[in-house]
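User: structure tokens for this one?
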Amino acid sequence: MQTSRTQPWIWSVAFLLRRDDVFLCKTSFTFDIFGTELYGWLVGEGRLAILPAGQEGDLPALLDAVHNYGVTHLNTSPTLLRVLLKAIDSTGRQNDLESLRHLFSGGEALSPDIIQHLFRLGTCMLSRKTHIRPH
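Assistant:
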């Protein structure tokens, strides 16, 4: 699904947007997913948390934001997701993801090992924007 072409009402049905949902805006405005981060929360009357500029690659800051703001919907590239999952394993910060209900990952190949790693944590549902071929 290309979120930049998706009608807003689809978000409320497909991703069960609720009044208490929180999207984290962390992506540069030059990427199409920025629109989803910036406006996706409006459909469910949720909230938007904005990660300060320059902290996109700061894993502790990203985990702090997810935890402190109760982020329920997070967009990330597979590369960042892989690094984030490794950081969670090495720091024991799995609880920082407890609020997540949906994790969107796209923009490049999403490999099965990332998905398996995410599912081992068991914290949220993975929404596919890429095709995943099972082995």
